[in-house]
Specification:
Helices cover 8% and strands 41% of the residues. The chain has helices spanning 2-22, 110-119; strands at 35-37, 55-61, 73-80, 90-91, 97-99, 104-109, 128-138, 146-149, 153-157, 166-171, 181-183, 193-199, 202-208, 219-224, 227-229, 237-239, 243-250, 255-261, 263-267, 281-282, 284-286, 291-299, 303-311, 331-340, 343-346, 355-356, 365-373, 381-386. The strands form six sheets. Strands 10, 11, 13, 14, 15 and 16 form a six-stranded antiparallel beta sheet that branches. A hairpin with a 2-residue loop joins strand 24 and strand 25. The chain is globular, with a radius of gyration of 31 Å. 25% of the residues are buried.
Length: 387
């Protein structure tokens, strides 16, 4: 009896499978669709921040023909025409993309198109050969979805960089592309370049690349009468002592500073109760990783910041009090870094940018490994690991 039941079940399953295989639904096929650019809106060949709000281009396209009646989703993509693998497309995510039952359009501003250009790995500040296309997707199952593309529309355009401006401080005889950098606060600011670096003794000049960071035709600044000068008679800047330096420059006034410091460290109420919390607890430096670090006991729930200092003599750190700190005598504070978002920024204003130790302020301490990285200009970072 059991064998008969098993045979019946197997027969029913077999019939069901064969039935499903023979019950084929409509077959989709890539029959294409056309993308068009509105010829009444001429696209600027050179993009600038002053025209960021202008409309750069307007596109419309047909409904994707997938064979049977279907509803696709769409996205506009751009890619470098010279990217033969089409492996690095950038997709438009702005509010100018409108798809309804009767129409499909994308109106893109100068700022939006330039933002997409800046996301391409081949971004440059000279003319780029860009293709625009629409990607149609049928289905929501990733690799199982049916995808086809419109015809590409080619646009030749020069964008502008959205990265902060940079300069390199180059030792005479070295190559600018490998030397330490200083950076401004944004792509339109040339007044507040800054960066921390280790310099060998020697003579240096500042090299300013193009806005996309290419040093091929860099502007070279030496010094005349104490100010930066790109003229042929400008002389190199002498760095007499090898060491750590905070370097700043202002190309609006041509002023610059190269300030030596001995070490980074922390200071603040999190380091100790009573007097002395304004003095620095110095870090160790790893010349290979360019990292400052320290294992230290900190008071829970209290605050601290980072400080760089220059000692006029040898840096002598006493064993007590806990944690040991270098007294403020014979020292000069060079800079203070406070918290800004997930990173740090130069900050000497009281009450701003404080970093708070975890836990409740009850007078007890926790041990932390603190790591500070100031090797990337204006991208200063730190980590705190509770031990």
């Amino acid at each position: 009896m059991k064998n008969i039941v098993k045979a019946i079940i197997f027969t029913l399953l077999f019939v069901g499978v064969v039935s499903c295989e023979n019950d084929k639904g409509p077959t989709v096929s890539a029959n294409g669709f056309e993308l068009r650019k509105d010829a009444t809106i001429p696209s600027a060949s050179i993009l600038t921040s002053s025209t960021a709000a202008d409309v750069f281009a307007k596109f419309d396209w047909d409904r994707a023909d997938n064979g049977p009646a279907t509803v696709s989703s769409y996205v506009l993509q751009i890619f470098d025409h010279n990217d033969s693998t089409l492996s690095n497309p950038v997709e438009y995510t702005g509010s100018g993309f409108v798809v309804t039952a009767s129409s499909r359009t994308a109106t893109i501003t100068v700022a939006e198109f330039n933002t997409m250009l800046n996301q391409l790995p081949t971004i440059k500040c000279t003319e780029m050969d860009i293709d625009v296309r629409i990607k149609s997707t049928l289905g929501i199952n990733g690799d199982a979805s049916f995808i086809q593309y419109s015809n590409p529309i080619n646009i030749k355009v020069t964008g502008y960089s959205l990265k902060p401006l940079i300069m390199a401080l180059v030792k005479d005889g070295n190559t600018a592309s490998t030397e330490p950098r200083i950076a401004s606060s944004g792509p339109n600011s040339n007044t507040d370049y800054e960066g921390y670096m280790y310099l060998e003794a020697g003579t240096y000049k500042f090299y300013q690349p193009d806005a996309c960071g290419d040093f091929t035709s860099a502007t070279v600044y030496g010094v005349s009468a104490g100010l930066l000068d790109s003229g042929s008679t400008a002389t190199s800047i002498n760095v007499a002592i090898a060491g750590h330096y905070l370097v700043k420059a202002n190309l609006a006034t041509n002023a610059y500073t190269i300030t030596n410091f001995t070490t980074f460290g922390i200071f603040g109420p999190a380091t100790r109760t009573g007097l002395g919390f304004g003095n620095q607890v110095p870090f160790d430096y790893d010349a290979t990783t360019k990292i400052w670090s320290l294992q230290v006991d900190l008071l829970k729930g209290r605050k601290f910041k980072f400080k760089s200092n220059l000692w006029t003599g040898a840096l002598v750190v006493p064993a007590l009090p806990n944690p040991p700190y270098a007294p403020g005598t014979a020292t000069t504070a060079v800079s203070i870094l406070g918290k800004s978002g997930s990173g740090l920024r130069e900050n000497s204003t009281s009450g701003q940018g404080d970093i708070t130790v975890g836990g409740t302020d009850d007078g007890t301490r926790d041990t932390y490994k603190i790591v500070l990285d100031v090797s990337n200009p204006r991208k200063y970072t730190y980590t705190m690991t509770k031990l």
